[in-house]
Q: What sequence folds into this?
């Protein structure tokens, strides 16, 4: 296919795209040809910019401390419920928006291990995101437990067979990422959860790279715990509060290690003794970051309006369109070829990824670099057009050598 | 003094107030006669509203992921250093702005106890803020330690004599609040720190109710650890990130329990093994909330411009002016009468505090309620005028009965 033909194809895919209108709902990124990093940091929705400004003036400035009695106190749970409905496939009362993914993972890991006091192993894969691995090692040390490593193939990631090798009566908890941060490989949430349960262990899913771009069904899959960030496909801004999910059946027993006034049964009693809230609030700690939570609300609202099935369908079309073009270059691909197994980013292997990224950036194309030799090309369905994918690819092809 | 005379006096105090101009730097609170709760939630500075809006459009929207290479990664430490210089009396490299006060207290408490492995008691007073007490109990349980309680007089709070009774060879760490959240009593940071050190223990100061309104000299007082929030006198907004200080001499040994990619020596190495950063970054965990940190920067900047000595001098004049008027009502006072020992809020005891607060609120005066019988009247020197204090008092006098 010639370049002119690809352009025509991109234009026609854009014309048929039912989500095309969402692109205008984001603030412009001046001078950019293509933004291929919505999988690291999503673009700011105009609605979020407006909401934050109106919050500062109207609610923080106008209501001041009274705001806490007018819904602020409940926001971590209120927006948690909204996110649960729009993004996580979860009934109300099991999700909060607060803290960072790291802090939330720390909390649910301790909670999960406490629920399996007679077991002493935490399972995680060596390909998982560094923070997840660091935290598993840290929590294992703190609880006198052992880390059991899965060493998966980079593209296949954690398979049922690989998991079967490490599960046993020792297994207290297993930490897996729904979509691998490097390859973009999707794991089978329902199947692997069932497998962990069969061993008597509990599962903790990290949803950072799937929340807002893949349909998720935490309740239906019988998941125990989940965490994830909101600044990628949920577009809530750099370092916006993360989310945390605890299945209702564990709520009465789930104990986390960082108690604070927001996790206490009676927030304003200021009483002498700590009693954890009976509900999901027990997973909170300190005063929640309200502006961040409101940004999460805007992100979840947009996803709900677009619908995750439509978002996923466009994500597949986007990555397939990109793959088709990437296949014409001399680069190795780390992402699964099967669309069913691929999230919303495509990872290619190029020597001197940082150097290539620098040249791309100078030409207005922003990818994500993982040293030393990976370029992740993230396609965010609500803000990325097919024409943008093609134009970004054309710049990449200029740098990497002529397409065949 | 007649009401007319008090009004004249307020006007003349305002005319002589070198900080009076700062009041206009805050967004208006429409319809309010007096805001007496800057000690719970400071008002939004106009500069912060502008900075947040420009960040969303210009940096988040315009620079996108590139921002992380353009100073974002360093912001928790950069703004930590700015806060250290403007507010904490601390040299650079010892302070970060991140997470909540609860999470930060959890981290430094574990770090402090690890530095005293042969000791088994954590000391805290029964009057301390609930979260501090909950966390001390939680950390003690997690480490197999014991909580040793000080039961101080409500107004006197923790004295050297009370502290002497509980310190000993068992003492690993002591947690105290610089300014008591109920009474507003100021503790002697330097003296009590020295006393704890003489016992061989380490001190953790909670600066929530003093940061930005009282001069603090952490380095000069030889403090080991400190934490505090930024949404009171630093005006950074509801749930804005908190701060955390570790004295340089402890940095190489201070180990905290929530490792994440932001606390790792090499953030982007994504390496297999966790090595804590050699510097203050080791106290971080996950991706920091940038908008919150930028709001802290604006707050610290305003305090630096006004100067803490001038802020403190006005704070004393404000509370003295209020006390003079409160003394004409039939209410008990929980705050110290000596200005040297009183922070920037005055606490009075009234039956049915919530009912009184409701009537005050309906008349445009916002105090802070602590059930069942305390009203805290917080006076924030940068945003509160003497006329405001008088007008708020006049409404209170109308409700509580005629002044004598």
A:
């Amino acid at each position: 296919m010639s370049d002119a033909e690809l352009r025509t194809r991109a234009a026609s895919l854009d014309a048929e795209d039912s989500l095309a209108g969402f692109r205008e709902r984001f603030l412009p990124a001046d001078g950019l040809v293509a933004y291929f990093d919505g999988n690291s940091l999503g673009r700011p929705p105009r609605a979020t910019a407006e909401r934050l400004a109106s919050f500062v003036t109207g609610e923080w400035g106008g209501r001041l401390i009274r705001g806490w009695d007018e819904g602020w106190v409940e926001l971590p749970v209120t927006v948690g419920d909204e996110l649960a409905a729009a993004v996580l496939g979860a009934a109300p009362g099991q999700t909060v928006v607060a803290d960072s993914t790291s802090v939330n993972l720390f909390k649910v890991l301790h909670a999960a291990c406490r629920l399996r006091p007679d077991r002493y192993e935490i399972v995680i894969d060596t390909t998982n995101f560094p923070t997840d691995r660091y935290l598993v090692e840290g929590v294992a040390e703190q609880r006198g437990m052992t880390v059991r490593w899965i060493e998966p193939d980079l593209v296949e990631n954690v398979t049922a067979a690989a998991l079967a090798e490490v599960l046993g009566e020792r297994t207290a908890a297993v930490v897996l990422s729904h979509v691998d941060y490097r390859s973009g490989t999707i794991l089978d949430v329902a199947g692997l959860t069932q497998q962990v349960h069969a061993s008597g262990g509990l599962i903790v899913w990290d949803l950072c790279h799937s929340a807002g771009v893949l349909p998720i069904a935490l309740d239906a899959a019988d998941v125990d715990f989940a965490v994830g960030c909101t600044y990628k496909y949920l577009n809530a801004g750099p370092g916006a509060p993360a989310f945390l999910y605890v299945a209702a059946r564990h709520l009465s027993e789930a104990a986390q290690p960082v108690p604070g006034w927001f996790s206490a049964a009676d927030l304003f009693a200021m009483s002498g003794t700590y009693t954890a809230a009976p509900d999901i609030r027990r997973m909170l700690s300190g005063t929640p970051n309200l502006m961040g939570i409101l940004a999460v609300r805007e992100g979840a609202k947009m996803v709900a309006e677009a619908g995750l099935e439509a978002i996923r369908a466009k994500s597949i079309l986007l990555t397939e369109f990109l793959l088709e073009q990437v296949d014409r270059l001399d680069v190795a691909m780390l992402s699964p070829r099967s669309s069913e197994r691929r999230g919303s980013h495509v990872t290619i292997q190029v020597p001197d990824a940082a150097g290539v990224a620098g040249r791309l950036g100078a030409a207005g194309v922003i990818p994500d670099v993982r040293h030393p030799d990976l370029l992740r090309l993230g396609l965010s369905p609500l803000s990325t057009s097919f024409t943008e994918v093609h134009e970004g690819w054309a710049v990449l092809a200029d740098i990497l050598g002529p397409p065949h």
Notes: The first strand of chain B starts at residue 34 and ends at 35. Chain B touches chain A through 78 residues (CB under 8 Å). The mean pLDDT of chain B is 96.
